[in-house]
Amino acid sequence: MPALPQEKLDKVVERWEVIQTELNAGPDPQSYARLNKEFAELDPLVSSINELRSAERELADLRELAKDQSADAEMRALADDEIGETRKRVEELCEELQILLLPKDAADDRSAIVEIRAGTGGDEAALFAADLFRMYQRYADLHGWQTEIISMSENDLGGYKEIIASFSGQGVFARMKYESGVHRVQRVPETEAGGRIHTSAATVAVLPEAEDVDLDIKQEDIRIDTMRASGAGGQHVNRTDSAVRIVHIPTGITVVSAEKSQHQNRKLAMTVLRSRLYEQEKERRAGARAEDRRSQVGSGDRSQRIRTYNFPQGRVSDHRINLTLHKLNEILAGDGLDELIDALISNHQAEQLAALQDEAEA
């Protein structure tokens, strides 16, 4: 493991102290919001630094006492016994701090737009897409996030050919980004009377929700159309021209939102458009990451999967990290999803640490 950069740690603590001083001085609201956000990001890092340095001092004192021939023999023996445990704590704190110092995705703190589409499997794939959306909706509720459906296309059985939703909250993208890819299901479908196990798939794409400051969408670059919403019923749908379609002329990106309120549709459609343009700009700047994202989602074919949900055996397997959990019901209920995502995050962090070590040894 690479040695901790002490000079960098000193600068982190120094910056934390400067921010604290500036916050206490009563800055203007805009500066306060910016400083408070930076302080919140640095605070756990500084706490970890202080805890590590305290443990290191304790370890040094114990080693010194253990070697001090003038000290009481019983005290020396006690210090010698505590050295191993304290050294282990120092090593654990070093590992925690290494993870806190890893480069972070600039979009991790943001809300996310989640797009779920039925892949191979017809009606059964659409039903599975609905299961995935409910799983994420319950997961969001458990984390205190807000869920808002932006658009959806249903089949006759209540499944989703496509559903796009906004998940709002702190750090949504940091966790949900690991869900991008092809999700495969193996079960006896409701549409199958013969009792045979079918394999179907749905794709999930997770985009960070863009902020107004990310990009400037010129009014002359968009065309906004209102049209009659179509759907599974309700007199309101049949008599109100409430659906909104926004076309971004330079890129051809088209977004449709068809909820009841035209004003809300315009707002939601602009949110999706902004996020798609933001993602497009990120892809332009980072082709390698974009290629990875596209390869994960692919065409929605069953073979291009990141995760399999096997109903007959009650298990879920994430193929990226070769992890299988026999907790299908808990995961689909949202309760067990954290275990999968935590494992994916830990794996990603381990890969980052290994890359840093390779760099240090090169």
Topology:
Layout: H1 6-24, H2 29-67, H3 73-100, E1 112-118, H4 122-143, E2 146-154, E3 160-168, H5 172-176, E4 181-187, E5 198-208, E6 222-227, H6 235-239, E7 243-248, E8 253-257, H7 262-285, H8 287-297, E9 307-310, E10 315-318, E11 323-325, H9 328-332, H10 337-361
Parallel strand pairs: 4-9
Antiparallel strand pairs: 1-3, 1-5, 2-3, 4-5, 6-7, 7-8, 9-10, 10-11
- Strand fraction band? 15-25%
Distance N to C terminus: 13 Å
Mean pLDDT: 82
Which CATH top level class of the largest domain fits? Alpha Beta
Number of helices: 10
Helix content: 40-55%
- The CATH architecture term of the largest domain is 2-Layer Sandwich
Write out the strand line-up for the largest beta sheet, numbering strands in chain order. 2-3-1-5-4-9-10-11
CATH topology of the largest domain: Alpha-Beta Plaits
Approximate shape? flat
Determine Rg (CA atoms, Å). 26 Å
Can you walk through the features of this model?
The model is unreliable at 232-239 (pLDDT under 50). The protein folds into three domains: 6-100; 112-210 and 298-351, Alpha-Beta Plaits (2-Layer Sandwich), CATH 3.30.70; 219-283, Double Stranded RNA Binding Domain (2-Layer Sandwich). The strands form two sheets. It has an eight-stranded mixed sheet. The chain has a three-stranded antiparallel sheet with strand order 6-7-8, covered by helices on one side. The chain has helices at residues 6-24, 29-67, 73-100, 122-143, 172-176, 235-239, 262-285, 287-297, 328-332, 337-361; strands spanning 112-118, 146-154, 160-168, 181-187, 198-208, 222-227, 243-248, 253-257, 307-310, 315-318, 323-325. The chain is flat, with a radius of gyration of 26 Å. With 362 residues, the protein is α+β, with helices and mostly antiparallel strands. A hairpin with a 4-residue loop joins strand 7 (243-248) and strand 8 (253-257).
